[in-house]
Amino acid sequence: MSQATAEQKKKNFNFNPFVMLFLVIIVVFAATFFVEPGAFDRQVVDGRNQVIPGSFHATARSSLSWFDIFRAVPNGLIGAASIVFLVLIVGGSVEIFNRTGAIPAGVARLVNVSGRGGSAYVLIVLFAVFAVLGGFLGWVEASIPFVPLVVPIVLALGFDSMTAVGVVILGSMVGFAVGPTNVYTIGIAHQVAELQMFSGFGLRFAAYLVFCAVALAYLLVYACRVRKDPSRSLVAGVDVSDLMLDYAAEKDKKLEARHILSLSVLAGTFCVVVYGMTQFKWNINDMSAAFLVAGVLAGFIGQLAPGDLVTALLTGAKGSMGGAMVVGVARGVQWMMDKGNLLDPIINALSGYLAGLPPVGSAVGIVAVVTLLNGIVASGSAKAMALMPIIIPLADLVGVTRQTATFAYQFGDGISNMAWFTYGTLLIFLSYGRVSLAKWYKFLWPLLVILFALSAVFLFIAVEIQYR
What we know:
Elements (H helix, E strand, L loop, with lengths): L2 H11 L3 H15 L6 E2 L2 E4 L2 E4 L5 E2 L8 H13 L1 H20 L1 H13 L4 H18 L10 H10 L4 H17 L5 H10 L8 H28 L18 H4 L6 H23 L4 H18 L4 H14 L1 H19 L3 H10 L6 H16 L5 H19 L3 H14 L8 H9 L4 H28 L4
Antiparallel strand pairs: 1-4, 2-3
């Protein structure tokens, strides 16, 4: 075997999300034979299952077979079906807009208007949009439809695909991590902690501004450095020519009426989705349906024949298949955890380490515990329901206010979303820009260190002022 072939095989194996997720499923399966099984008792409060602190007890060991390793994949796909189909339908709908020429023409117009000098301002605006969606509405998965549109815009402005996915990931996930009104973490945690919903807004909002400013500055430094010298790009050599659309052919053309109408439909769809999710409690399936309607309307506006419209839809869905599949495999890890009854014993063991620590140490310890568990259960709301009934009594015992405990939980849940390869949405975002996990980690790790250090600073402040 030649050295080049060996290096290529190593490259294909390292940080391949499917390989890594399947290995995690195998590790979880093996852990079921060694971890002492147990469970907490739960009670229903306001329609939600909550853990009863101090109720952990031994249970019978689950009977798993080697075949469950493979069952985890289809069951994970079933569990994540709504997001899987969202990715496929959005990919198909965006391809319809591409076939009509609306998106290439719109990107060309944006680049011509902003020019090279104004491109940094476009990044700032895009980042701010995602930071608001993540921080105030708690939307990360809901940002998925934006990515196929953001990537070609950022590439056309002269930046690389790392910058393109960075705008989405850092904006939405940093915003989510410190969102002042994030209903999925703070909202549920406040209910469990018996605090007024979204109380303590001031310190969380200050943290939100600081974290977002730091993340944006980090992204802009990298983006401007790479645009000035493309050889310094972490994704140099990655072929993204097909992601850039046909900008060269469109840059001298004017937007036609049909393009403007199609883009208006696309913009209107985003507005309708935001309104539907905030006012009518729409779910992921409703969002998928809205984008399917938008794609069909764009096809008729662009005068695509019905057969061509369907072909475009299927072509776009096919291109999104990898990102959709990885969500299901990631959910398979959680399925295996549930099947093997591993989550409660892990929660019980980790929470025991918090007892006896000083207040600041306990607050930082909560961040560490939640960060570790975030790799197993990505859902912020699910972890809040499982962990907060345990964290709150511990916080009371060590002299940490309940508001500080929820603050620490929010940091632990949100910051590590950007790093855990078991988080399917992160993998979707990266796949849209052809960014490998290895390259993403190389870009991200200095910022992670900074953000975790900032979380410790804010928790120290919270402990000192008896944050309530």
